[in-house]
Amino acid sequence: MTGTAAPPRADVVLAERRGSVLVLTLNRPDRLNAWNDAVEQRYFELLDHAESDPDVRAVVVTGAGRGFCAGADLDDLQELAGSRDLTRLARRDPPRHRPLLFRKPLVAAINGAAAGLGLVEALYCDVRFSVPKAKFTAAFSRRGLVGEYGVAWLLPRLVGRSRALDILLSSRVILGEEALQLGLVDRVVAPEALLDAAVAYAGELADLCSPASMRTIKSQLLQSQDSTFAEAVRDADRLMLDAFSSPDFREGLDSHLEGRSPAFPGLALS
């Protein structure tokens, strides 16, 4: 995307508030929610809005119809195959991994196929709920492509090196139950309960957990991937001292002692 890109179509990603949780639905069901620039722009725009809204404390992303996201739109791939100028792929602003940098909880409700870029987008989420018959596939090696957009960094950290190699080299289809065993997803839920289960989980985070704590914890996990254990301990010691002097710590302690739900303030991140 560039600064001259056309405004995103609002209908390609739908937004619905459920209390403090924002549900975003990729909405190209006739194409199994295949990813294109319009979807990306609208999705990232909605994440930006959610991040700056203190009343939104968690986001759930799912797909309309039978799929979560079937990967990059084939029309776009055909256009790329015939293009000699591919520099725009490396000049995305914001970067394609923008969801990984989202500073509030991001939960995936994977209702169907998550392939190629769709798999990567699912992996950018913090926690993944899936239906038993959801189909996961990297797809890259069967299209003459490589592990895209940081998946070679993410996947081994989730499932281990050999399993990541299996998933990426073979591009085989993995169903929901095996995805759970491998560590690709965290919960497998019946289709009729999927979205409600994901929203309930996100709602629990929104209602019971400090937004400031969750922001910091997400940052800790991301930064610790490239640090030593000693560095992670030093960073945690510094952050813990800050936390002890924060109003959220006082509220967390008081609410626990008083046997009530905490009333943490929301975050408006810019």
UniProtKB/TrEMBL annotation:
Its EC number is 4.2.1.17. It comes from the Bacteria. InterPro entries: ClpP/crotonase-like_dom_sf, Enoyl-CoA_hydra/iso. It is an enzyme of class 4 (lyase). One of its GO terms (molecular function) is enoyl-CoA hydratase activity. Signal peptide: none annotated. Keywords: Lyase. Gene3D superfamilies: 2-enoyl-CoA Hydratase, Chain A, domain 1. Pfam families: ECH_1. This is Enoyl-CoA hydratase. It comes from Nocardioides pocheonensis.
